[in-house]
Amino acid sequence: MIVAIDGPSGSGKSTVGKAIARLLGYLYIDSGAVYRAVGLKALESNTAVEDSSAVARLAQVSDIKLEGDPDHLRVFLDGHDVSREIRLPEASRASSVVATIPEVREAVVEKLREMSLERGVVMDGRDIGTKVFPDALVKIFLDASIEVRARRRCEEEGERGRDVTVEQVRVELEERDRRDTGRAATPLVKAPDAVFIDTSDMPLDRVIDQVLEIIRTRS
After folding, report:
1. Do 34-117 and 1-26+119-214 fall under one CATH topology?
2. Residue 13: what pLDDT?
3. Predicted model pTM
4. Which of 80, 108, 167, 203 is a good FRET partner for 67, with 20 to 30 A between their CA atoms?
5. What is the phi/psi pair of residue 190, to 5°?
6. How do beta strands 74-77 and 80-81 pair?
7. Domain extents for the chain?
8. Low-confidence ranges of the chain (pLDDT < 50)
9. pLDDT digits (tens, 9 = 90+) for 83-108
10. Residue 124 exposure: Cα atoms within 13 Å on the Cβ side
C-alpha cells in the first residue's frame, strides 16, 4: 500500500508520516528531502537556481538515495551523506525555487516512484496524491493555520540551532505557500479523493489515530 500525505510546510505531514511508517513497518520517504538535495547540488555547483534548463539537468543526473528508518532518515547525494546540509537555510531557499521548475519535478517524480517499488510506502510532500501516486489507495491532506505552522516550524529551527522569531518564520512560510500554490507544475492542492485533516488544534496522537483508521478502512 502507498499512503500519500500532502500539505503545506508546518502542517505536520512529516511528523505524522514518520509515525505511520514506524507503526506499519513501511518505508518512509520525505519527498521534500529530494528537492532539497537538488537545490543543494545547484548551490554546490554554482548553478543559478533560476536557470531551469541547467537545474533540470542536475536533477536528472543526480544520484539521490534515502536510507534508514523514519526516525533516522539519511539523504545521500552522489554517494555523500548530505542529511545535515540540506536542512540549512540556503538549501531550503534553493529547494523552494527549483521545485517550481516543471522539468525538475518530472525528474524527481521518477526518482520517487523508483524508491517505492519494493515495499509499502508512506510518502509526504505537496503533490504526492495528485502527481506522484494519483492512484494511491490512501490520500491524506493535512493543514493548519499559518500561526500554528509558524510556531511549529520556529521550534524545529530552534532545535537545529537556528535563532529565528515566529514572525520571521511566518514570512518565510507565506512566501513558500505562494510558490507552492502558484507554480505552473503540479501546484499544492488537495486531491479530490484525499481526506482533509486540520491539525491546528488536534493533538498529534489523535491525528495519527485518525490516519490509521483511514488506512484500515481502505486496506
Report:
1. yes
2. 94
3. 0.83
4. 203
5. -80, 130
6. antiparallel
7. 1-26+119-214, 34-117
8. none
9. 999 999 899 899 989 998 999 999 99
10. 23
| In the chain, beta strands by DSSP E | 2-6, 27-30, 64-67, 74-77, 80-81, 121-125, 138-143, 195-198
Q: Which CATH number fits domain 34-117: 3.40.50.300, 1.20.1640.10, 2.40.100.10, 3.40.50.2000?
A: 3.40.50.300
Amino acid at 42: A
Q: How far is residue 134's CA from residue 14's CA, in Å, rounded to a whole number?
A: 19
Q: Which residue in the block uniquely carries the three cell numbers 528537492?
A: 35
Residue type, 67: E
Q: Which long-range contacts (CB under 8 A, 24 or more apart) does 65-71 make?
A: 66/29, 66/30, 66/33, 66/34, 66/115, 69/22, 69/28, 70/17, 70/18, 70/19, 70/21, 70/22, 70/28, 70/122, 71/18, 71/22
Q: Which residue bears the cell 544520484?
A: 63
Q: Which CATH class is domain 1-26+119-214?
A: alpha beta
The whole-angstrom separation of Cα 82 and Cα 84 is 5
